[in-house]
Amino acid sequence: MMEDAAEGTFDELVWSKDKVLKLIGIFRERPLLWIATNSFYKDKNKKNYAWLEIADELIAMKADVKTKIRNLTTQFKRENKKPKSGSGVNSEKRKWCLPWTT
Question: Residue 56 falls within a domain, yes or no?
C-alpha cells in the first residue's frame, strides 16, 4: 500500500475536517518532520519514510500530504499575523491551533 501512495496512483484526496485533524495528529507524532533540533531532522531518508507512513495511513499521496501540511502552516501563520483589535469588539476567536508552528 505504501508504494501506491508514494507513486501517486490514488485519486485526488478530499480533505474533510476529520481527515485534517487525523493528519495533524499523525504529523504531530513525528517530530523529526517539524522540530529542527530533532537529531533526525536533517536525515532525508528518515523524513521521507515518515512522510510515506503518513500518506499510507491516510491513503493519500505523499505530495498531497506535504502540500496540506504546508498550507495549514501558512494559514496558521497568516492568522497569527492579523492585527488584534484594541477594544475587543469584532474580534474573532481562533478556531484551531497548530502546535508545531508556535
Answer: yes
> How many domains in the chain?
1
* Cell numbers given for 27: 504529523
3-state SS class at 14: coil
Long-range contacts of 73-82 (CB under 8 A, 24+ apart): 73/98, 73/100, 73/101, 76/101, 77/101
**Is the pLDDT assigned to residue 100 strictly greater than 90?**
no
Q: Which three cell numbers stand for residue 23?
A: 493528519
Give the residue from 44, 32, 101, 40 showing the smallest Cα distance to 73. Answer: 101
| 13 occurs within a structural domain | yes
Does residue 91 surpass a pLDDT of 80?
no
Distance separating the N- and C-terminal Cα atoms of the chain = 34
Range of the domain at 67: 2-79+97-101
For the entire predicted model, the pTM comes to: 0.71
Tell me whether residue 88 is in a domain.
no
